[in-house]
Amino acid sequence: MAATKLLVADFATTVKNVPFNYIRPVSDRPNLTDVHISDSAIPLIDLHQLSGPRRSHVIKQIGLACQHDGFFQVKNHGIPEEMINNILSLAREFFKLPESERLKNYSDDPSKTTRLSTSFNVKTEKVANWRDFLRLHCYPLQDYVHEWPSNPPLFREDVAEYCTSVRELVLRLLEAISESLGLKRDYIDKSLSKHGQHMSLNYYPPCPQPDLTYGLPGHTDPNLITLLLQDDVPGLQVLRNGNWVAVNPIPNTFIVNIGDQMQVLSNDKYKSVLHRAVVNCDKERLSIPTFYCPSPDAVIGPAKELIDEHHPAVYRNFTYAEYYDKFWNRGLETACCLDMFKA
Ligand code: OGA
Ligand code: NI
Questions:
Q1: Could you give the CA distance from residue 138 to residue 161 in angstroms, rounded to a whole number?
Q2: In the record, which residues are listed under signal peptide (predicted)?
Q3: Ligand 1 shell residues, CB under 6 Å
Q4: Tens-digit pLDDT profile for residues 116-149
Q5: Domain definitions of the chain by residue range
Q6: Residues 164, 145: contact at Cβ < 8 Å?
Q7: Which atom number of ligand 1 is nearest to the Cα of residue 133?
Q8: Is the bond preceding residue 140 a cis peptide, omega within 30 degrees?
């Protein structure tokens, strides 16, 4: 049977089998028994010393992680535990609202700046994904906050506060990453034009046959850098030396990953790494990625300080608007969108 409900949350717990439009072909299934489990899947970096005398040591750790892993986790990041718990409960509350209340926010048009949707891009994809998501643009805040859901009642206020804090953390990380590349501290900040920030509240309901489908199939993030907050249910997996490795959640940490634009700016020194989200039989899972990005008009290309005769520019210059458009329209295919922007 095909799903008759729009959102996965509204049929997930009543079906015994995954509806056929969610079933991946045999060659493209998660093979969950082959996944490696490791507590040190990605480096954990303590940001406490970023503003102290050991700043250069932390910057070196960040640089190594960006180069070799494309992913790292951060602790002592300055975002209070209460704010983290609050945003997770608020997201949970949103996805528990009655179907009719949630659907007021529904749209399958990726150009809308506030929308609830499902899967990835229902207009272009062949197989659907076991995910519902609420996507919000959140910088500059005053341009968007009035569009956000007003239910739960504290949603706008609390999410606005969270976005503002996460942005401060991102800006500190961007300075550190600029320095780790040997660039001026404000280099990345200055290359993003007016900056942009989006977030997604991802809801992955329990799934009767998690081996047949994905929450999100393997992809790289099209933006500059992503800060992922997740609850305590595992699901994120990162590709490492050709193997999928599960990243076990650590409370009060953020997972940071390099996006495609950072790979371009760094002229391939830093890697935008494939990752995916899988689902499980028993437990719903929430994740809240913040996607920090250039504004659409920003012209992105390799930093000229990183180009020389031994390191020619790997990419041409392009606007972020051009890149973003390609990303949403081609679907989440394993081959990276970056290849279309090579010099
Ligand atoms: C994403 C993503 C992973 C997760 O939304 O781009 O990679 O664990 N999410 O939800
Ligand atoms: Ni992602």
A1: 11
A2: none
A3: 200, 202, 216, 221, 228, 230, 235-236, 275, 277, 287, 289
A4: 999 988 888 899 999 999 999 999 999 999 999 9
A5: 8-341
A6: no
A7: 5
A8: yes
